Hints:
By secondary structure, this protein is mainly β. The protein has a single domain (40-219, 249-372), classed as Porin, CATH 2.40.160. It contains 5 helices and 18 strands. The chain has a 14-stranded antiparallel beta barrel. The longest helix is centred in the N-terminal third of the chain and has 17 residues, at 17-33. The relative contact order is 0.16.
Amino acid sequence: xxxxxxxxxxxxxxxxxxxxxxxxxxxxxxxxxxxxxxxxxxxxxxxxxxxxxxxxxxxxxxxxxxxxxxxxxxxxxxxxxxxxxxxxxxxxxxxxxxxxxxxxxxxxxxxxxxxxxxxxxxxxxxxxxxxxxxxxxxxxxxxxxxxxxxxxxxxxxxxxxxxxxxxxxxxxxxxxxxxxxxxxxxxxxxxxxxxxxxxxxxxxxxxxxxxxxxxxxxxxxxxxxxxxxxxxxxxxxxxxxxxxxxxxxxxxxxxxxxxxxxxxxxxxxxxxxxxxxxxxxxxxxxxxxxxxxxxxxxxxxxxxxxxxxxxxxxxxxxxxxxxxxxxxxxxxxxxxxxxxxxxxxxxxxxxxxxxxxxxxxxxxxxxxxxxxxxx
Length: 375
């Protein structure tokens, strides 16, 4: 018998949330218990491609979105923000290139309100390097170089998120949301992995202030790696590398806290937000760091004119770097962006970097958001 509390989650299709969670956990347990994995680890920066950002607006504001996000991109930043959506449907498409076009980053999402107190969203992310040369057979049997033997493969990371947000009528100022995410990672035919995880989010309005909190990988995201050692055994043996074993990689939870406020001055609006990203996978090179937790601030400002034209600035990725003389200095990663909203279409642009004061080329991010209303 299910408890009265769980019965309260009964939805229109006649399925219980209890059954969904139970069967999902049983599936994960079955996959892990039958894969023959020999190693379990919680490495630092696991699945870090999910921390890049989504949507040019958020990336232009230094990834500070936990409390202010209010559209289809909420599925990535904070699923609770889906409840702010006023359109019947929203969709967003983003393409970006990193490291002078070597790495491609694509993001697509769709969301819709289910009723006045709930909303649903779906997101997909692909971060990949395509056409990597495989030179294992560069030399033929006679020892001569044969470029026709060079093949190519792709190293890609995928993430698929299903988001749900709910508002309780008695707590009108509080919004809650959750993500169920499935990860797939592949390095050609050499290795592949599947992962499962959950995110929880909340937003709370306190007068003119908006508070936000997101716990990513709340139960730890388990990624099960499966390697094909027969493809690299000879090369690894000749070079002295260790042949990898099947393993389970655990992504430790990450807590993001944010606060924002909007100011209206005649035809202009100013939105300011500051977020604190708290990681618990060991000491990182962040502004505040310890063995227990590392804290990385993110600050963003958006100025709009009649909600039509937008200018965005941000700062993130505070790091202590070392000079050649051994002295230390603080470096940050600035971000910049523009946006324009015309009828049902919003086009956003962001200029970001891959790290503070790096010599790599800045990355140009473009995203297009489309709003659709029923006739």
